[in-house]
Design goal:
Helix content is about 25%, strand content about 25%. By secondary structure, the chain is an alpha+beta fold. Helix 2 (about 100-115) crosses helix 3 and helix 5 (about 250-265) crosses helix 6 (about 310-330).
Length: about 350
């Protein structure tokens, strides 16, 4: 169960309204499923998998335009060569740990074949961040069955955050991190659309953490909440998935993926050398059948000048998703007794009140 969401603390981010669940699942047809693996025997496991299934899972037969952006490339996201070649997302998306991203990629394909949701060609998208500070990566605990269970569990509605799914063993700004999500309703001259974001957070130094511009990380130093690391902070990675129901083309999706960087920067992400900061945006407003036998009528598209509200809403949703991951995550002890401490919500409220940011 989520510990809290950032708005529960009286912190409102940005100017755009949220969807009903303030989650990526507010985008119609986008489902999220998760499987979490926690045990201490025969090995210490603090890991899992999170899956995102567009088109109610039928993305393998009904493709969506998509774009990718690499802010820093010390990471892996499979299927991207094909996505960039065609401008199309042709599979579900899975987020997991570094050591098992290949297995998860194969299992995602297996699960899709089993449910008869794939088209004639399939290169699944699976991405990773490194959970080896809390999870024993020498004894892989995640199995194909866990991926299949996450696919079967995929639903619309509220999304569990924090120590769940692919985010189970992750650390963010030297606090416990994990899965987070948020959404925005975007009003344009072409109509009203929903934009949703889901993140797997595993990056950043404490001193860089900001909430609504407030230097919370400097105010809550290691004298108040210890670092999870024995030596210098271990900067790592973040995966961000963005969805919208707007009728965008591939290059417009790529432009949204680029703007994810501005949301990461608001919280204090700078793209350290060892960070895998990989961003994918897809849009379900157009339908591209996998087995089209003739021209595909795409209908309307948003003029480039109508994208400015999206460019404003993307950083809001990314910022709130990251902070929701931090607010929801609970203190966790893992392999070798390493402990990642939860961001102290009472301290956050104290600091935000000091800076007059609470509503």
């Amino acid at each position: 169960m989520n510990r809290a969401r950032i708005r529960d603390l009286g912190i409102k981010l940005g100017i755009y309204p949220t969807g009903p669940n303030n989650a990526i699942t507010d985008v119609p047809g986008v489902l999220v499923g998760q499987a979490t693996v926690i045990h201490d025997q025969p090995s210490v496991a603090r890991t899992g998998v999170t899956v995102i299934l567009p088109r109610d899972g039928a993305i393998g037969k009904d493709y969506a335009f998509a774009g990718f952006h690499r802010f820093n490339g010390c990471g892996e996201m499979t299927g991207i060569q094909w996505l960039e070649e065609t401008g199309l997302l042709t599979s579900g998306i899975a987020l997991t740990n570094t050591g098992q991203v290949g297995m998860v990629r194969d299992a995602l394909a297996q699960a899709s074949y089993a449910t008869d949701r794939t088209g004639p060609f399939y290169l699944p998208v699976a991405a990773e961040t490194y959970d080896g500070w809390l999870n024993d990566v020498t004894a892989p605990a995640l199995t194909r069955q866990h991926v299949i269970e996450a696919v079967a569990a995929a639903r619309s509605g509220p999304v569990d955050e924090g120590n769940v799914g692919g985010g189970t063993g992750m650390i963010c700004h030297d606090f416990k991190g994990g899965i987070g999500t948020a959404s925005r309703l975007v009003e344009t001259r072409s109509g009203k659309f929903t934009l949703g974001v889901l993140v797997q957070t595993n990056y950043g130094d404490r001193a860089l953490l900001r909430i609504d511009g407030v230097p919370v990380g400097r105010e809550i130093g290691f004298d108040r909440v210890p670092s999870p690391f024995e030596e210098a902070p271990q900067s790592s990675s973040i995966i961000v998935i963005l969805a919208t129901d707007a009728p965008l083309l591939a290059d417009q999706c790529r432009r949204l993926a680029q703007r994810i960087t501005t949301g990461l920067a608001r919280v204090g992400g700078v793209g350290h050398n060892s960070s895998g900061d990989l961003f994918l945006a897809f849009a379900t407003g157009h339908h591209v059948p996998a087995q089209a036998n003739g021209p595909i009528p795409l209908g309307v598209m948003l003029p480039p000048g109508h994208l400015n509200p999206f460019f404003e809403a993307v950083p809001e949703a990314v910022e709130e998703s990251i902070l929701n991951a931090l607010a929801a995550a609970e203190t966790m002890t893992g392999v070798h007794s390493h402990t990642a401490y939860a961001m102290p919500l009472d301290e956050v409220k104290r600091v935000m009140e000091q800076y007059r940011r609470l509503i």
